[in-house]
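WARN  no MSA supplied for this record, continuing single-sequence
INFO  ligand: zinc ion
INFO  echoing inputs
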Amino acid sequence: MTMDTKPIPKINEDSRPFWEGCKAHELRFQKCNKCGHVRWPPAIICPECHAKDTTWITAAGHGRVYTYVVYHVAYHPGFKGELPYVVAIVELPEGPRIFTNIIGCGTDEVYCDMEVEVVWDDVTVELTLPKFRPVR
Ligand code: ZN
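INFO  complex generated
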């Protein structure tokens, strides 16, 4: 990896079903079979009730911008060509809030509570990233 290559997520056994879902263009999350909590990031136990029994569900793929920032500085050289860009936390109706990028609009058009939908960035054959764009 050169310094200009973007860092990529480290996939482990807990998160593999999420990343395989992304490759299939599906947002998958663990839902606790005991209390119903839908969690992110993936974990071996439920953070609410500590149960291990879980089912992977597929989220609808829409949500709202919970909060965001516009990056004008590249803190890693791999992101230099993307400036300025939006890093956001999107809240999904299923429960999770996930870190992502808002694309498909100007950085000055993003606002909190904006309705967004998932769009898939097929980075490599092995890695697809969920990003979000405004619902028009
Ligand atoms: Zn639980």
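The pocket of zinc ion is lined by residues 32, 34-35, 37, 46, 48-49, 51 (CB under 6 Å).
INFO  checksum written, moving to next record
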